[in-house]
Amino acid sequence: MARVVDFLTLVLAVIAGIAVVSLMIHVTTDVVMRGLFKKAPTGTIVFVSNYYMVLIVCLPLALVELQKSYISVDVITGLLPARAQRHLYAWTLLVSASIFGLVAWASWQEAVTQYRLGKFVIEGGIRFSTWYGYFAMPLGYGFGAVYMVLNFLKYLTGQDGDDGTIDAESETEKFEQVMHD
After folding, report:
1. In this predicted model, what pLDDT tens digit does every residue of 47-73 receive, in sequence order?
2. Angle in degrees, CA 73, 77, 81, rounded to 5
3. What separation in angstroms does the CA of 100 have from each of 62, 114, 138, 145, 161?
């Protein structure tokens, strides 16, 4: 199951990466057309705010956990023994997974509501459906929660093989192996 979640996490990250490239192309095209032809494509702001940015921010949330590339402040925990750090980290996963799960559930409710309403924006006389973007948040937070729960289960079963410290090289190797597989 962990391999499936890892794969889907990477798929979401790739989609977010495609959104980054699409955003750059779209905005560059808008700027160039506005500068050269005094006419820009309609909908740039709609796409940037309702699709690209939401995908870029929300979809790779589980990847942050996979790579352990989150921000951490360990002023006090760094002084604890490795075993205590490992236990603290694991239980923090459970709390974080609960919060991520709640955010996923609440944002899912909102996404379904927007879907049922058929939410759209009109810009330049063109109707753009925007309800699609609402599903990025529950997807990103949901996978983040699943990934954290899986890591917590690994901790409970002793399969985490972690001494409580984060080894950046080891994590990079794990990520490269998942990408290779």
Report:
1. 999 999 999 999 999 898 888 777 777
2. 145
3. 10, 21, 9, 5, 24
